[in-house]
Fold this protein.
Amino acid sequence: MSFTLHGLAVSNGIAIGQAHLLSQATLEVSHLVITPRMVEKEVARFETALARVRSEFEAMKVSMEKSPTDIRAFIDLHMMILSDPELSEVPKQIIRERRCNAEWAIVQQMEVLVAQFDKIDDAYLRERSYDVRQVVERVVRELTGRPGHAAVKVPKGVKGENLIVVAHDLSPADVMAFKDQHFASFVTDVGGATSHTAILARGMGIPAVLGLHNARQLIRDKETIIVDGTRGVLIVNPDPRIREEYELRKSQIEIERSKLKLLKTARATTLDRVKIELLANIEEPSDVAIALESGAEGVGLFRTEFIFLGRGDMPSEDEQFEAYRRAVKGMDGRPITIRTFDLGNDKRVHSSMTEDRKRDNPALGLRSIRLSLTEPKSFQAQLRAILRVSKLGKVKILIPMLSHGHQIDQTLAALEQAKSSLRGEKIAFDESIEIGGMIEVPAAALAVGLFLRRMNFISIGTNDLIQYTLAIDRSDEQVASLYDPLHPAVMMLLAHVISTAEKVNVPVSMCGEMAGDPNLTRLLLGMGLRQFSMFPAQIPAFKQRVKQSDISGITPIVRRILRLEESAKIQEQIDRLNI
Ligand code: PEP
Ligand code: MG
């Protein structure tokens, strides 16, 4: 049966391949022996989880009222499986008899059922074992208190090129873990358009659609899927005509991309000869090659935390030195801006961080520089590692999420301490290394003078700036439609930051997602921005846009646009005047 699902378009392009459902990983649960006193509590916990999943299914049915009957039939089937005594009663016996935890009990029972299905001759019935797995996976997620979130482990030996990962949710650490498998694409039920997971998809240059709600429930392993990452559409089991159409579009996109690559060595200069600096955002040292390949003049943002996500402990100074050394060497004298760890929120290195620091509002919590300042030893290790590589190239330091003057003071003092310890050990570093602050909290944007007086440069992180200005969680697909870069409040903040920095002659760049969107290039040029940092894959199209732009013509129009009070009107003017 062919059907279409709609989600958030987060990374352009088209992929055609086989579904690779990430499921088994969630089912790797721990086996705990419980005390006799705990047995009935465990049974009750199991019953609560079943009840929750049942209501999730019911809600899903309501939300899918307009979907084809066949799709809704899936949900009915899953509800039936959930209510079957084999899954709803037998695990309770297992808990009581073997005195084990509920997750273990249901997974044990699932293994028995799946083994029985596997012996059936009838292919249709055999396939039902997928359904059993999917239902059990939901219950396990409820039990583990992480609805929807799966710790992904990609099976050994899986080769990615023709596979499309289908998951309920993927954390940035999950994506980093399978980055080198070269999957054709990934799609998830949850996640916002500027979540770090989406950012990684764009960085990898693969199409992705997030926020699909029920994809993980409706798609079967190995089904053929078309992912249209530009429109946010997923076509499952496409008929041959549709598939042909998409094959054609896919090859057109490839031709277009290779044409743009010819611009690699062209200068990014506007029609009125204003030179624009084009830098790359990277996540790991090996990305440097792609950055240079796409014509980046330097690295404007090296998100260092991505190298060490999910590995279990904080990296040592020497490990960091080695990673940064590879990136700096790879840039061969071109500038590279290394950002200190932006950990916390959705990016975690060790599990204690997940447990100890889990809060209701992690984006507003101990994240980023706030976290670094509370862990002076780790912060020193990172600053020393960055300083040590500063002798090997043109290195700058970037500090994320600063908002208070005293944080700037503390950060500068920490840098001074790292410098003096290296001096004491007679280790060379660049004494005049530049340090910059990210402007990604509205307070920092409004009080940008704080930064301009004390730092060598600033870089605007629009992803967080928009999240905090509009009070919407960037990784929550339920509020994704409110994420609006053209909101007048965002425009005002950007214009204020750029013009204030310009007045006092402090370099300002932008490294958030807005920087790489060619539809916003002229607006930003008109505001006075001259330095942009983006994913390597975005650089060619951006360069083409710059080369077709005339700043002297754009600037007065942008000034008028900035007076508008509604984003719809701003968008309309951008379209009408081809800004
Ligand atoms: C930003 O917030 O815009 C940014 C560049 O940082 P990150 O996306 O890593 O939070
Ligand atoms: Mg940020």
About this structure: Residues 199, 301, 303, 342, 440, 461-464, 511-512 surround phosphoenolpyruvate (ligand 1) (CB under 6 Å). The domain at 28-144 is CATH 1.10.274.10 (Enzyme I; Chain A, domain 2). Residues 351-357 have pLDDT under 50 and may be disordered.
